[in-house]
Amino acid sequence: MSDDYIVKPVAKALQTLIALGESGHDVSLAELCVRLDLPKTTVFRYLQTLQAYRFVEHDEFRDTYRLGWQLWNLGNTVSATSRVRQVALGPMRDLRDVFDETVNFGVLDGPNVMYLEIVESRRALRMQARVGGSDPATTTALGRAILAHMPETRLESLLPQLYPPRNGALSGNLSSLRKVLQVTRQRGFSLDDEENEDGARCIGAAIFDWQDDPIAAISLSAPVSRLPDSGIASVATEVQRTAARISDLLQQPHLRD
C-alpha cells in the first residue's frame, strides 16, 4: 500500500493502541510517550479519542491506561463470522455443484449486505458480485432473507437507513418492503428478480444461530435465461435446505463457543 493513502494521525493512534497492547500491563501516559517517542499532548489526544470509542480504558485512581472492551467485542465478531464462513463453505460448494450456478454468502452491514464468500459457477457467464463488495440489503436476496427474520425492534431501527434503495427498487416505499419481507418470511426464501443486477435472478435463505437469530444468508444467483420462472421452486428448495444445513451445523455444541 502506498504511503500516500495513509492518514498519519490515524496511523499514530493505531500505533498507540498497539503499544498499549504489547506492554502486557496497564501503562501510564509517560511510559507510552517513551515507547512511541511522541509528545505527551499528542499521545493524550489519541488516548482520549480511543477512550471515547471504548478501545481504551482509563484507571483514574492509578492514572493508567489499558485496552478496552471494544477490542474484545470486535475480536469476537470477527471470530464468529470466520466460523460461520468455514462451516458454510462445504454446503455452498455442494449447492453450486447441483446447479452449476454461483452461490453467495453474506452478512448485514448497516443498510447493506457484504459478500464474505462466493463459490463461483464454472460457466463463462457469471454474476458481478465479489468478496468484500456490498449491495443494498433491500435489493438483494441475501439482504431480504436476513431482514425478513430480524426482530421487529431491530428492523425498525434499520428502516431509516434503508432508503432510498438503488435502481428504484420497491419504489422507495416502506410498505412495499414490509410486504416483500412478509412474503419472504412466510415462504422461507427471498427473491431478487433483476432488482439488484440487470438480467440476474437470485434466490436466498437466512442462516440462524443457536438463539434463532438470522446472522447471515446464502443465495444462488444466475442469469434469468438459466433460472426461468419454472425453475424457481426447485432452486428455492435446495437453497433452503442448504441454509438449514448450515444452521444445524452452527448449532452443534462444539461450534457455539
**Helicity, in percent?**
40-55%
What's the number of structural domains?
2
- What characterizes the major β-sheet? 6 strands, antiparallel
Report the sheet-strand fraction: 15-25%
Order of helices and strands: HEHHEEHEEEHHHEEEH
Could you tell me the CATH topology label of the largest domain: Beta-Lactamase
Major sheet: arrangement of strands: 6-5-4-9-8-7
Mean pLDDT: 85
Topology diagram in text:
Blueprint: H1 8-23, E1 27-28, H2 29-36, H3 40-52, E2 56-59, E3 64-67, H4 69-99, E4 102-109, E5 112-119, E6 134-136, H5 141-148, H6 152-158, H7 174-187, E7 190-193, E8 200-208, E9 214-223, H8 232-250
Antiparallel strand pairs: 1-3, 2-3, 4-5, 4-9, 5-6, 7-8, 8-9
Written account of the structure:
This protein has 257 residues and is of the alpha+beta class. It folds into 2 domains: 3-67, Arc Repressor Mutant, subunit A (Orthogonal Bundle); 78-255, Beta-Lactamase. It has helices at residues 8-23, 29-36, 40-52, 69-99, 141-148, 152-158, 174-187, 232-250, and strands at residues 27-28, 56-59, 64-67, 102-109, 112-119, 134-136, 190-193, 200-208, 214-223. β4 (102-109) and β5 (112-119) form a beta hairpin. α1 packs across α3, α4 runs antiparallel to α8 and α5 crosses α7.
